[in-house]
């Protein structure tokens, strides 16, 4: 291989490594190109990169097309010689008179080389005109200075962290820059951008810990190659996070058709042997208008879409404004919960009484949390408790509820009413080593007996089947605190846990109670639940009782207690006391 060929291979390798070819236009380059055209007073200027068979324009003024053939392109001469080059009149130049530019009516050309720090010329910064022209030494010196500024921008792109070293792909900062440039160019029409997330955080950490960083690098390189092939020669993917890649769909793509292509891409990624280990890739999509959606909102929407994709069976999801609104509301809820804990007028407890079917007396109630947000209004606990439970505020929420509930029991006791309150236990509470001590200290503080507290455990809580969890439940049971299995019948393993948990009460879910009046099979199911619970020594409470007929039927089936709107809606403390005083006599369910 001769020196010239070897040098050209090295030059092309340097050009490819910079990943400038077939990238989006950039305002950082465009402003230099505009300046060059203005200084020379010419209609055309370009940052022209010399590829194998073409001159590709990273930046351009006065040109509609993106490339011309390399053959007889004056910029190719600049790249090959690494010297400035001037054609004063194409019509008087035997070599270039019949070139692509010459045939297009160009008469004047001046180009300055774009030379890298290691001495390779990538192409030229050039200016062109449709009339013959002379050029002064000062003008050429200025053009060379501007070419150097172009290369400074290229170097800055890399030096300031625009390229991800692991993959060699442009990173998140470059994507933000390209999205901004798209808006500045006044690009119109819907575009589609996708975000591939290879693994969840815990999967990534597990993979790195077990297999080491070299395996992870192998996966990144494999995925980078797949995505580069997917986007084609005229585009580039972006490496925007440790396991995340963003890429644009081809222009004029529609969502439905492109989603089919993404499914194929996902299959390729999942089929790669390196990504099959501990990785579950997902892809989120956003269809956006560059003129109406800010780059920050595009990236945030991509993250929202890919999280929704993780929860879907297809693992591919289009950004949903409705889902995004829910996520943003959840964030607002979490953000405002700290102030709600400190405020005196936002969080409160209401109480729904339970009726002892055999005696007609009311000696217990369930405490339910309410939140009256100053801006959003009343927020249902079904909405805010799961959000808070998964956050750092879960412990504070538990302490607030315990403090308020036990203080109410104390106040009622001073008014001559001995009452038991049922509180919902969070899954996280079973993992708190000091939960027992915190509960006991509050009982002592308000002089309340442990048997006046009943803790309800849902199946989510019960699934914390650890030695520490069962140890805590046994400790609570020994101290006199009562335990109840909530929403019985709705989970997959309730029967198994009936034998393990040191509980006192089983609460039949409202869905079974609601269906009970529809037919014999539904009644048989409820009777079976009651009989099974009784045979294992549990007291049975039916939730969601809304009619006299349901109450009478549950009495016949042997249910011990009932709770629901038929008896009372959840009410505040004073209203509960007034209600109890007004119903001094026991409640009789069945007539006669």
TrEMBL record:
Domain EAL: residue ranges: 330-584
Gene3D superfamilies, A to Z: 3.30.450.40, 3.30.70.270, EAL domain (3.20.20.450)
Pfam families cross-referenced by the UniProt entry: EAL, GAF, GGDEF
Domain GGDEF: 189-321
Matching InterPro entries: Cyclic-di-GMP_PDE-like, EAL_dom, EAL_sf, GAF, GAF-like_dom_sf, GGDEF_dom, Nucleotide_cyclase, Rev_trsase/Diguanyl_cyclase
MF (Gene Ontology): cyclic-guanylate-specific phosphodiesterase activity
SUPFAM superfamilies reported for this sequence: EAL domain-like (SSF141868), GAF domain-like (SSF55781), Nucleotide cyclase (SSF55073)
Protein name per its UniProtKB record: Diguanylate phosphodiesterase
Organism: Agrobacterium bohemicum
